[in-house]
Amino acid sequence: MPLNTVSTLGVIALAFLAGLIAATLIAGILWRRWRRSEQVAHENALEIARRESEIAARELRSKIEEEMRTERRQLEEQLNRREIQVSLSEERAKSSEATLESRKLAIAEQEASLKEQLKQVEADRAQLHTLSRQYRSRLEQLSGLSVETLRSELEEEVRRECEDEIRRLKADLLDQGEEAVREEARRILIDAMQRIAATPMHDITATIVPLPSEAMKGRIIGREGRNIKTFESATGTTLLIDETPDSVLISSFDPVRREVARVALDRLMSDGRIHPTSIEEAVAEAGKEVEQSVIGYGEESLRRARLTGFHPEIVSLLGKLRFRLSNNQNALDHSVEVANMCALMAAELKLDSEVARRAGLLHDIGKSIEGEYHGSHAVAAADLLRRHGEDARVVNAVAAHHEEVPPESAYSPLVMIADSLSAVRPGARSESLDSYLQRVSNLENLALQHPGVTGAYALQAGREIRVIVAPEHASDEDARIVARSLRRRIEEELQYPGSIKITVIREQRFTEQAK
């Protein structure tokens, strides 16, 4: 290698080394400056943190001191209140002690006074006892009787005088009370009856239809009786065609069916065409007409009784009462009369007139209920009214008007009284002795027709019947069935006022004779 080249490389190396040393020195200087600046920044941050902590500490100290001052002030106020309460309690205690001491002194004085009075009483008692012995001995000497004998005679005399006086006083009070109640009841009933403008009932129980001619009877009967059979089957009634001139009798225990038959027969005679087809058409049209008339009669009864708010079924059942009679008294007119009479008596007694009026109008609605039901018409009507949401007082009054259930309000006896007044007033019902005997006889004969019945006895003017069944032919359950079946037959086949109580008796007797 040439020398120049070597010397050039040496210079370059020296220059590089010098640059490296210079760079290292510069880097060391820069690093020391950065370190110093970082240290200064750190010291500044520490100083700021120290100052902030001192400020926070001062604020916290001030807050704690303020809270302590507030708490101290509150404690001082509580302590002052406690001191005041304690002082008041001490004052009250001192006052109570003073009062107690004064009361003790007063009690001690009263006790001393009572002791003095007791001593005086004991002295007076001893003196009285001494005088009593002296008087007793003097009385024994004068009368010649012992003290016990005199005491017993005196007690007997006083008891006798007191008993007579008490008896007279009791009789006077009871007579006055009963007479006042009787007079008030008489006044109310007379006033209610006088204000009811009713007319006598003379409707007949049978439906008689006049005929235009005797030839019409043959047309009604028809060839081989087919017309009359169709008519009776369609209407559920019986046509009685006898020797009575120019009339036929329609017989049925259902008054609505009897009315349908009458209207249908009038329609057939007016039309002139009488054959099975026309009979069925006339009966259907008559049924619709009677149904409309039933609703009309029901609404008319509501207007006469001045009532509203009834279910349509109840209105229809009220209308059916128009065709029912009880001893020639129309059932619907009777119900309206009972309603008005109940309202009048309720007004006199300061009761609800509308409740009494509703109970009186609905009391016999069970008589028009068709189908099977348990109990009498009163119980059946009560069940129906209860289902339709009627007032509980009305339901009970209807159920209790024949005393089958206990009354729960004053409206039940009102209905009973008005029902009886409407039935027994002059001209309301008519029943001769012969018809009464016939009704009782029919009732007994109907019961005797039942299998297993050995005896039947009508009681209470036909309002009760007692039936005896043979125990060897009927069990207890059979006896119950007999009562239920007899009730249905009586309701379907007999006409009777009010209700009939049925009692079935099944009894076995075993008799032995020892010799």
Could you explain the architecture of this structure?
With 515 residues, this protein is mainly alpha-helical. The model is unreliable at 197-205 (pLDDT under 50). It has helices spanning 3-143, 147-194, 215-221, 226-235, 255-271, 276-305, 312-320, 331-348, 353-362, 377-387, 392-400, 411-424, 433-448, 476-493, and strands at residues 207-210, 238-240, 247-251, 325-326, 329-330, 453-459, 464-469, 501-506. Strand 6 (453-459) and strand 7 form a beta hairpin. The strands form 3 sheets. It has a 3-stranded antiparallel beta sheet, with helices on one face. A 3-stranded mixed beta sheet has the order 6-7-8, with helices on one face. It has 14 helices and 8 strands. Among the domains are: 207-424, Hypothetical protein af1432 (Orthogonal Bundle); 433-506, Cation efflux protein, cytoplasmic domain (Alpha-Beta Plaits). 70% of the residues lie in helices and 7% in strands.
Which radius of gyration do the C-alpha atoms yield?
Answer: 57 Å
The total count of helices amounts to 14
Beta-strand residue fraction: 5-15%
Instruction: Describe the sheet with the most strands.
Output: 3 strands, antiparallel
Low-confidence stretches: 197-205
Query: What is the CATH T-level topology of the domain at 207-424?
Result: Hypothetical protein af1432
